[in-house]
Write a sequence for this structure.
């Protein structure tokens, strides 16, 4: 069986060569991930980050970003791989809107590679992708967060549960709203549809972390349903304020 899979993968690399997930350049045969040109341009979050949401800190002596200091957030911890700059923005846009679904595997591998010890020690019972509305799923045909979550599940063996949380309505862009507006925007946006009683610790996966409103909304709903701990992992995050 493994030999057959290897042959199929080999044939796929020949007829459908892999491309750099950041610039789209065809990669050297057998190579995966960023090309040699994009690799040094990538900005990883690094070691100095907010212990709550995972955003990179400009004040290296602090432990929390200013947003987490002044807000009570129901999620327990968040971590991200890359800083959300123009390079990463273009790549995630291609994954999200241009059907570059193959990029999900690379991003998932980076989440696990960067936070393998954290993931292993947390003892997650399930992985839950941030859901999209039925309308957006119909238009796009897929949920980019679920693609990444499925790959993380494949790598770690943690069960994927895309059946317990749905988005019941779309929200306008969070970045265009104030704090009160974001809270109102996300009120009743998510709904539990499955039994989560047996799930004590959940990993939530999304592509980008920005204001924290979406993750707070999801964590709040999950904890109201009985989940004890909610942590999230995203491909990228904005800079701390």
């Amino acid at each position: 069986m493994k030999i057959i899979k290897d042959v199929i993968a080999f044939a796929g690399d020949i007829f459908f060569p892999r491309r750099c997930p950041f610039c789209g350049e065809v990669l050297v045969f057998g190579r995966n991930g960023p090309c040699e040109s994009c690799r040094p341009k990538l900005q990883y979050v690094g070691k100095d980050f907010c212990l709550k949401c995972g955003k990179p800190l400009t004040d290296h002596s602090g432990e929390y970003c200013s947003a987490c200091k002044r807000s009570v957030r129901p999620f327990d911890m968040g971590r991200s791989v890359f800083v959300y700059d123009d390079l990463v923005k273009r790549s995630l846009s291609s994954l999200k809107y241009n059907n570059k679904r193959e990029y999900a595997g690379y991003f998932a591998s980076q989440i696990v590679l960067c936070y393998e010890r954290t993931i292993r020690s947390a003892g997650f019972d399930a992985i839950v992708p941030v859901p999209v509305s039925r309308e957006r799923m119909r238009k796009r045909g897929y949920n980019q967060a679920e693609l990444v979550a499925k790959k993380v599940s494949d790598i770690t063996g943690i069960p994927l549960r895309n059946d317990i949380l749905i988005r019941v309505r779309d929200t306008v862009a969070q970045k265009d709203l104030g704090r009160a507006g974001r809270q109102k925007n996300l009120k009743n946006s998510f709904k539990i549809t499955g039994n989560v009683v047996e799930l004590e610790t959940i990993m939530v996966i999304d592509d980008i972390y920005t204001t924290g409103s979406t993750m707070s909304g999801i964590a709040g709903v999950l904890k109201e349903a009985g989940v004890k701990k909610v942590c999230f992992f995203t491909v990228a995050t904005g800079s701390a304020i």
Remarks:
- Strands lie at 77-83, 126-129, 165-167, 190-192, 201-209, 229-237.
- The helical segments are 2-15, 66-70, 86-97, 103-122, 134-140, 144-156, 179-186, 213-224.
